[in-house]
Write the structure tokens for this entry.
Amino acid sequence: MFVGLEHMLIIHICVGVAINTQLINFSMEVLKYKVIKTKEQYYEYCRELEKLDDSLEADKFVDEAELLTLLIETYDAERETKSNYDPVELLHSLMSDHQLKARDLAAILNVSKGYVSDILHYKKGMSKEVIRKLAERFKMRQEAFNREYQLLHENSGERSKESTKRILQDV
């Protein structure tokens, strides 16, 4: 009877060691994503997040996308990425970075090309819905696009005193 208990005890110890070894190996795996420290890493993570969002199986990568979003937003907040831009300058910069044309943006936002052109030429302000879609598309906070900026006077081509303030208060 003691032989059986000793045998069971040895099996129990071996199983415990095997489980602990697996846990140690699991915890020693290299992390796929780390805190962003360089611009190159930032842009790499942005591209990866876009791939995940555009994937046909995006539902499988929700946790991964949320982690990337958190890392990107944290980097943005710490570095105040592009914080000196007004929303239209920011949009021009993002379009250039992502190689988008006005017609591409119109399709993404589900608005007319004329409306996008008016936004890009300071003739019209961004609607609440456009701000939401831009923030979602470029993985940024709505506040980046939700800032006051001056619109052009139609007659003179100069910036008017009229601003986008009333739109921004509604968002």
